[in-house]
């Protein structure tokens, strides 16, 4: 891809792990996670995906997520809709937390203080009468389940831009909301997100959460 698009920039999980900076500039930028759900992949647990997002002028233009074990191809393009294997996606539209299935992921930090906050957030949602809270081990596929209407909301602290870029386009094009956990606009580099089928649901989730600080992708 670099040979074909020499003027384009690339942000990828493996490059970041090797020390490359994650800076989203106005240049055309590919944002890639070649294996989302690495732990699942190692254990042959069947929720593993490839995620590719594309941004121009710091605006997300399209996203592609491939569910490897089920051969499901999720796609979204700004202004053109979202699809899975050619069938249009639509979020659930649920506004009642007591009827909502909420998805999340644990995040990379496992120190006692962070785990306490993570479990506290789950407890807060369950006390608020969420119908269920689930962790499937792949943030990109969890977000695709939201886009397809199989889940009603998603939140996470500690996910990276390569986990979120493609899925953001797909959810928005399926009619959903993707925003910051503060309730403000999404910041792709902030390592935190709330997404839902409706703004009402996203706001309910955001208001219930305690912040877990993971810093920013563009400051690491």
UniProtKB/TrEMBL annotation:
Binding site for Mg(2+): 13, 33, 35-36, 163
Enzyme Commission number(s) of this protein: 3.1.3.25
Primary enzyme class: hydrolase
Molecular function GO terms recorded: fructose-1-phosphatase activity; glucose-6-phosphatase activity; inositol monophosphate 1-phosphatase activity; metal ion binding
Catalytic activity: scyllo-inositol 1-phosphate + H2O = scyllo-inositol + phosphate; alpha-D-galactose 1-phosphate + H2O = D-galactose + phosphate; a myo-inositol phosphate + H2O = myo-inositol + phosphate; D-glucose 6-phosphate + H2O = D-glucose + phosphate
Functional pathway: Polyol metabolism; myo-inositol biosynthesis; myo-inositol from D-glucose 6-phosphate: step 2/2
Pfam families cross-referenced by the UniProt entry: Inositol_P
Family matches, as InterPro entries: IMPase, Inositol_monoP_metal-BS, Inositol_monoPase_Li-sen, Inositol_monophosphatase-like, Inositol_monophosphatase_CS
GO BP terms: inositol biosynthetic process; phosphatidylinositol phosphate biosynthetic process; signal transduction
Cofactor(s), names only, from the UniProt record: Mg(2+)
Record carries keyword Metal-binding: yes
Family indicated by similarity: Belongs to the inositol monophosphatase superfamily.
Name recorded for this polypeptide: Inositol-1-monophosphatase
Lineage, broadest ranks: Eukaryota, Metazoa, Chordata, Craniata, Vertebrata
């Amino acid at each position: 891809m670099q040979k074909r698009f020499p003027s384009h920039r690339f942000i990828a999980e493996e490059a970041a792990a090797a020390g490359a900076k994650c800076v989203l500039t106005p240049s055309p930028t590919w944002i890639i996670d070649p294996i989302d759900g690495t732990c699942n992949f190692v254990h042959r647990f069947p929720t593993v995906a490839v995620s590719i997002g594309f941004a121009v002028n710091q605006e997300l233009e399209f996203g592609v997520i491939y569910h490897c074990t089920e051969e499901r191809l999720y796609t979204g393009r700004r202004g053109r809709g979202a699809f899975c294997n050619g069938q249009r996606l639509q979020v659930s539209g649920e506004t009642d937390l007591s009827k909502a299935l909420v998805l999340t992921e644990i995040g990379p930090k496992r120190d006692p203080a962070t785990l306490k906050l993570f479990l506290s957030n789950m407890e807060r949602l369950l006390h608020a009468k969420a119908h269920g809270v689930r962790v499937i081990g792949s943030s990109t596929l969890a977000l695709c389940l939201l886009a397809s209407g199989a889940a009603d909301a998603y939140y996470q602290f500690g996910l990276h831009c390569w986990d979120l870029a493609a899925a953001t386009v797909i959810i928005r094009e399926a009619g959903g909301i993707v925003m910051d956990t503060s309730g403000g606009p999404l910041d792709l580099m902030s390592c935190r997100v709330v997404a839902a089928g409706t703004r009402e649901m996203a706001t309910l989730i955001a208001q219930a959460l305690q912040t877990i600080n993971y810093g920013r992708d563009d400051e690491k």
